[in-house]
Design brief:
The protein is mainly α and 170 residues long. It has one domain (2-160). It contains two helices and no strands. Helix 1 runs antiparallel to helix 2. The protein is rod-shaped, with a radius of gyration of 37 Å. The two termini are 21 Å apart.
Length: 170
Amino acid sequence: MGDYLDSKAVATNYSNEAGSARMNATLAKRQAYAEAYKLESDSAGSLQIAGDNMLTMRRNQSAAVAAQRVTNAASGFSAGSGSQLQQEASVAEVLEMAVANAAKSAMISDVNAREQADFLRREGDTQYNLGMVQANYLQKMGKINREAGRSQLLGSVLYTMGAQGLKYNF
């Protein structure tokens, strides 16, 4: 009878561990998905700020070109001379490169954040799947111990009957 109770206790323990493994797997997956969502949200916010900064850079570019035109007009040379147009173009080009670099940097950061978020989701799915495999194993071990306990109980009863000289026919 003691072996039966021991097996039943071990089976119950395995079942409890299986429940814990399932819960831990689910929590790991949820945490990974939450981290991925936060990463994507932060990236979207950074992209919005980068867009606002690029609009400011465009306004600064327009103001710098206008200031260069005023300077050129105050110089007294004709507005159509090549060197004055070249000065305006060079001011515009420098600021245009800054805007292009800012856009490229923002897009690279966004793509990296999204790839990292995808990795976090895959990692969460993997942790979930491994946790479920562990939980299924523990559940199966619990079932095996329950069956073993029943067999031990039956064997114990048959042994007791045999020790007392009782006959049994199956």
